[in-house]
Amino acid sequence: MDYTTLEASSKAGQEQPPKRMPSLYKVCQQVVDGRAARGKRYELAGLLVVLVLAKLAGMQSLLGASEWIADQETLLREGLHLSWKRMPCANTYSYALERLDSQQVNVALAAWFERKEAESRCAQEQSRLVAQPSERHVHLAIDGKALRGTGKQRYGGEEPQKQVLHVYEVQTGIVLQQCPIAQEHNEVSTLKPLLTEARCKGRILTSDAAQSYHDFGRLVKRAGGDVVLFSKDNTPATRADLELFFEDPQADRRTWQSFAQSEKGHGRLERRPITTSPDLNDYLYRDWGEVGQVFRLQRERKSRDKHSVEVVYGWTSLSQQQCCPQRLLALTRAHWAVENRLHWRRDATLGEDECGVRLPPVAQMLAVLNTVVLSLMDRHQVTNVARQIRRFVSHPDEALAWVLDF
C-alpha cells in the first residue's frame, strides 16, 4: 500500500493558512528596469518606494523628494533594509524614471491594488477572490489629462503639452490604465486598444465628449459591456437631434421616465432633473449601434448671488428595464469622480502641475506615483488627503507601514 498517497491526501485536507499578499515594495521588485547594467547602482524597487514615501510626506518635486529621503536616511535604511552607500540625488531618480514604461508600471501596480481590494472584500477566502463579483468594480470612468509641465503653454517650449488617458474604477479609486497619448494620436485612437473583453465584460463605461465616437458603443457591447455617453459639440448632429426631440412640446411622452434630485449645502441649492426615453433607439442605431435609451439631464444651481442652468444630452446602451432614471443619474454623477477625486487631487493636493518636470517619460511616471499615493489613501479610507499628508510629515514611520503593509 502506498502510504505516501494517504499522507498527501491528509495534508491536502488540512486547512492551509491564508497566504499574505506581497507588499508594495515586493510588487515594485517585479517592475522591468530599463537602465543599462552600468546604471544600476541603486535598486529600482527601492527608488520607487522611497519616492512614494516622499510623496506621502507631501514632497511635490524630485529635488524636494531627494532632500526628504536624505533626511529620513536612518528610518528608510532600517525599514527597507537598504544597502546604499548614500542616498540618491534628484538626477538619479530622474534617470531611472525616464527609462521605465509608465503604462506597464501602472498595470502592475493596479493589479496589486485590485488584488488587495478583493482580498479585503473576501476576508482572506482565496477561492472567492475571482468567483465573487462585486458592484465596486462595475463602473469605469474614462477621461484624459494634460501634463502641464511638459508643454509650451507653461515654459515656452516648441512641443505641446503631453496628454495621458485614464481608465478609472470609480468605486475603488484604482486607475486601471494610464496610457500616454502619442503626438500623432488622440484620445479616441488611444482608447480603442483598451476596449477588450477582459476590460469591458460586465462593466459600465462612462465617457465625456472627447472620447465619444461612433464605434465606441459597438466595441464595448461586442466586448460584453455597456456605455453611458454624453453628446456635446463634437457630435453636433446627434446633439441637435436629441435637443429637438426632448424640447418638442408636442412629443408623445408616454414612454418617458423622469426623476429629480435636490441637494442643499455649501451655500447653494442644486437640482438635477433627468428624463429618459427609448423612442430614438432605432433612429440612432445606424450611427451609434445598440441604444437602450436617450436622456436629457438638467443641472440647476442657485446661490445667494448666482443662478446657473446647464442642460446636457446623451445616450446609453442600458435599457429602461436595466437602468432606471435614478440609477442613470447616479452613473452620470459618479463619472466626475475621475475629475474630482483623481485629476483635481493630483493637481491641487499633490502639486502635479507645479512639479516643473519637462521630460515626458519622467512626468508620466510621477503621475503614476501620484496615482499610487491616492490609491493608498482610498484603500485606507482617508477622507482628507491633505490632513493625512500633514500627519505623515511628522510620523514618517506610519507611511512606511503603509508601504510595507504591516
Present the secondary structure layout.
Blueprint: H1 3-13, H2 24-28, H3 44-56, H4 62-71, H5 73-80, H6 90-98, H7 102-122, H8 128-131, E1 139-147, H9 152-155, E2 162-169, E3 174-181, H10 187-191, H11 197-200, E4 204-207, H12 216-222, E5 226-231, H13 236-247, E6 257-265, E7 268-277, H14 281-288, E8 293-303, E9 307-316, H15 325-335, H16 337-348, H17 360-379, H18 385-394, H19 396-404
Parallel strand pairs: 1-4, 4-5
Antiparallel strand pairs: 1-2, 2-3, 5-9, 6-7, 7-8, 8-9
Helix pairs in contact: 3-4, 3-17, 3-19, 4-6, 5-19, 6-17, 7-17, 18-19
Annotation keywords:
single chain, 406 residues, alpha+beta, 45% helix, 9-stranded mixed sheet
Structural features, described:
The chain is α+β, with helices and mostly antiparallel strands. Helices cover 45% and strands 18% of the residues. The protein contains 19 helices and 9 strands. The chain has helices at residues 3-13, 24-28, 44-56, 62-71, 73-80, 90-98, 102-122, 128-131, 152-155, 187-191, 197-200, 216-222, 236-247, 281-288, 325-335, 337-348, 360-379, 385-394, 396-404, and strands at 139-147, 162-169, 174-181, 204-207, 226-231, 257-265, 268-277, 293-303, 307-316. It has a 9-stranded mixed beta sheet, sandwiched between helices. A hairpin with a 3-residue loop joins strand 8 and strand 9 (307-316). Helix 3 crosses helix 4, helix 6 (90-98) crosses helix 17 and helix 18 packs across helix 19. The radius of gyration is 24 Å and the shape is elongated. It starts with a helix and ends with a helix.
